[in-house]
Every structure is written in C-alpha cells, then in structure tokens.
Amino acid sequence: MKLKQLNVILKEVKNLVLKDLFVMLSDKKAFILILLMPMVLMMILGFSLGPAFSGNGLTQPIVVAIVKEYDREHDMNRFENLLGNYVQDHEDVNIHEVIEEIESMDIEKIFFKDFLENDDLQQIMSYQILDRTQAEEKLSTGNIGGIVLLPENFIYDMYINFITPFKNEIQIEIIQHPNNTIRGSIVESIMKGFFDRISSIIISKNVFIETAVEESAGLEIYNELEIFLRKISEDFETEKVNIEDMQIENSGRINSFDYYAAAMLTMFSLYLATIKSRSLMEENNQKTLQRVKVSGVSMKSILLSNYITVFVLSMLQIIIMITYAAIALKVDWGAYSTVGILIIAHAVAIAALSAFIGAMILKLQKLKIADFFESAAIPVMAFMGGSFIHYSILPAFIQKMSHFTVNGLAIRGYIYIMLGYGVKDIFNYILGLILMSGLLLAVSIILLQKRGVETNVDHYEIKNTEIKG
Fold first, then answer.
1. What residue stretches are annotated with the ABC-2 type transporter transmembrane domain (predicted)?
2. Rounded CA gap, 240 and 232, in Å?
3. Which H helix or E strand runs over 128?
4. DSSP, residue by residue, 331-363
5. N- to C-terminal Cα separation, the chain
6. How far is CA 45 from CA 48, 180, 416, in A?
7. Which of 154, 239, 250, 371 stands 20 to 30 A from 22 (CA)?
8. Who has greater pLDDT, 274 or 127?
C-alpha cells in the first residue's frame, strides 16, 4: 500500500515539475533576470575592475603620504630632559653615553630609510612627506593611495616605549579614499606589519627591564641598555622587508573575470529562489493550487515539486553561466569534477531557500515578502558574501557573517576551486551549504504544518443530492 502511494506521489511530482519547468522556461522576464543580466555584468565588472586583480593587484606602486604632526627636535629635548632627571642622583649611570646611543638609534631612520625605502617594499609602495592639507587634497583627487598620520609627540612616545619601563599609547591614523579601498587596505596592512614588529621589540624591552629589576640591578640597567639598543638598530638594518610573489604548487591565479563570474553566478542564483516563490503565491491567488488539490494532488506533492523545480532550474542556471564564462570570458573554473559537487550543493541550498521564502509567503499570504527579499535581503546577502567587492576586503565581522549566507559559502568554494584546491579543501563550504539547506527546509516544514497552508480548498464541501424519480 505504501509503495503504491509512493508511486502516486512520484507521478504527481513528475507531472507538476514538467509543468513548472515549461512555465518558468517560457517566462522571458525570468530569463533576463537569471541569465542575461548576470552574463552582461560578468563582462562589465571583469573589464572595469581588471587592474585590481592583475599581477599583484597593482599596475604601479601605491603612493602614500606621510604626515608628520610631531616636532622631532622638541621631542628629543623633552625625552633627554626626562631621562636626565630620572637618573641624576645615580653617578654610576653614564647618562651621556645612554643619550648618545639613543640618538644613534634614530626612530625616523628606522621608519623612513630602513623600512619605507627598502627596495622590495618600493616595488609596491612609495611615499611623500606632506602636510595634512596637501595630503588630503591629493587623496581626494586620487593621486595617492592613502595617508599615514604620525601623531604629535611621536618620537617622544616611541623613545618612552623603547627605553623606559613606561608605555605611552601611540595612535597611528591611516586615511583611505572610500572609492579606492583595495589600495587603502594594502597601505594599512603594510603599516600594521611594521608597528606590530615595533610592538614585539617593546615587549622584549619590558622583559629585559623586568628581569634586571628582579635581580636588583636598579638603574645600572641603563649601562647595559647600550647593547640592547645597538642590537635593535642592527636588527632593523639587517632584517629587510622581503616581498615575494609566491604561487602555491598546482594552484591558479584569479583575475577580475574569474572573480566576478563566480560573484554574479552566486548572486543571481538567489533571485531564482524568489521568482519561484512568487509564482507559488500567484498560483494560490489565481486558484491554481486549489484546482490542483481538488484534482487529488496532495500539498506534499505540490511543495516537493516546487523544490525539485527550483533545484533543476538552479542546476541549469549555474551550468549555463559557468559554460558561458568559460567560453566567452576564458574563465578557468578548475577541476570540473570538484565544480560539479559544489554545483549540486549550491543548487540544493538555493532550492531550500526558495522553499523557505515560499513557506513564509503562503503562511502569511503576503506577496510583499518576495519583494522584501528581492529589494533588501538579497542585496544585503550579496554585499556580505562578496558579490559586489572581494570578500577579503570586507570588515572582519562581515566576513564572519558571510559564512551564514548561501552566496558567501558558494563564492568561496568556486574561488578556491579556481585556485586549484580540491574537495577536501572546500569540504567546509559544501557542508555549510548542506547544513543551511537542512535548516531552511526544517523551518519551511514547521511553518507549513503549524496551522496548515491556506489554499481555501479545505473549505470546499461536496454534497450528494438524491434524485427522486
């Protein structure tokens, strides 16, 4: 009996899927939205953002403005006076030798000559020393990639942190142009690397001083500080910045066409979910669902057929767009066996999202839910997932949140495959898509079963009328 019921359901689902596929594939508006628009955007974004993805991402070195808001001479005099007052009662401390050694460890030389003028670093970044007004004008016109503000008392605070047991907070401000976030992020990363190195040296100094205090060395420690300072200066001179253009073995390199092919594919697959959900509500309003139910088709068959329809359409959409990008835009998607596995997981998630949206629409009987997803939810998901700008440039908390979006997981999977990674490497993304699908389907079932879906069919009443002869 159960086998017979299963056969009936499968036959119903098959007929409904074929009907839905015919209707959807003959919809010109849907065709434009899910296929034509992403294809056009792939090409436009690929050409317009090509320089940001070529080579190391730069066509020429970034020019950064260094703004010195401090007075070097004033800072040095202030620190020497402080140090002199600190040790004036201790004749065994040769303050003049300490000051000479401090002056030999030139903070500006370390930052400008040893770091910024390093040959390897200058391949990707050069600098100009400007005042703040000049720097902001050049940044606004796009002539520089960012501004680094060295604050007031910079030299004084640096020496306090290097030499004394105390610590003064130093706020290095980096200003980026909102329309040039890639270059600004590179400047920020480079500066962070330098000042992280400075922080590690200061920590070493603190350990040095604390050890001396524990051994009751007192202020005699400053006689040994000369060796410590000389070692720091030598480290900066010999420890050059080494920038290598490395490529993982058997891995590829992506360009703008590669990235935005994956980005547009994952974004517009989200719109497919809303299109079918919207049509489900329209069928309900037009009494199509009621007529189907009256004909004996169960609601389970209707919902299952909708899920399968979206899954098949999503598979077709993704495969067509991948084929188009490979032929027209020369996108190398990587190992197609791995891509195939990701396509299935991606399509399963899109179908589950469609089921979730459809369940909400039927439950609340409001078509505006589809409008909300199309106009608000999907653009937000697209932004968080990296469909507009590269996901690595997004703020850290948004990058974390993007792992809870279908497109955020899918785009990472496609990019990793392009770079030469295998199924094991993208397993977390595939698993994430499957788990998200299960969660969306579970919520959809709960929504539809809690009070039942209103299709008005249950209100129909069949009466037998006896004909008397």
1. 29-445
2. 13
3. strand 125-129
4. -----HHHHHHHHHHHHHHHHHHHHHHHHHHHH
5. 40
6. 5, 16, 20
7. 371
8. 127
CA–CA separation, 272 vs 317, rounded Å? Answer: 9
How far apart are alpha carbons 229 and 223 in whole angstroms?
11
CA 254 to chain centre: 16
CB atoms within 10 A of CB 3: 7
**CA proximity to 409, closest of 387, 427, 385:** 385
- The closest alpha carbon to 270, from 407, 399, 384, belongs to 407
* Residue given tokens 């420890």 in the structure block: 239
Closest C-alpha to 186, from 146, 153, 140:
146
d(CA 294, CA 11): 16
- Indicate the helix (H) or strand (E) that contains 375: none
User: Rounded to an integer, what distance in angstroms lies between the CA atom of residue 344 and that of residue 64?
Assistant: 46
Model confidence at 13, pLDDT cuts 50, 70, 90, reads low
Helices (H), strands (E): how many in the chain?
19, 4
Alpha helices in 88-151 (DSSP H): 95-104, 107-108, 132-140
Amino acid at 55: G
Tens-digit pLDDT profile for residues 73-98: 898 888 878 776 765 655 555 556 66
Asked whether the beta carbons of 303 and 448 are under 8 A apart, the reply is yes
In the chain, the domains with their CATH numbers are 7-53+252-455 (no CATH), 62-238 (3.40.1710)
Query: b/e map of 141-150 (b: 16 or more CB within 10 Å)?
Result: eeebbbbbbb
CA distances 72 to 68, 75, 101, Å, are: 9, 5, 17
Sequential DSSP letters for 242-253: -------TT---
Q: Are strands 125-129 and 173-175 parallel, antiparallel or unpaired?
A: unpaired
Model confidence at 433, pLDDT cuts 50, 70, 90, reads very high
Mean pLDDT, residues 185-192 taken together: 82
Question: Other C-beta atoms within 10 Å of 340: how many?
Answer: 12
- How far is CA 180 from each of CA 48, 123, 392, 450, rounded to the nearest angstrom? 14, 19, 14, 50
Residue 304 confidence (pLDDT) above 80: no
For CA atoms 172, 176, 182, 187, the dihedral sign is negative
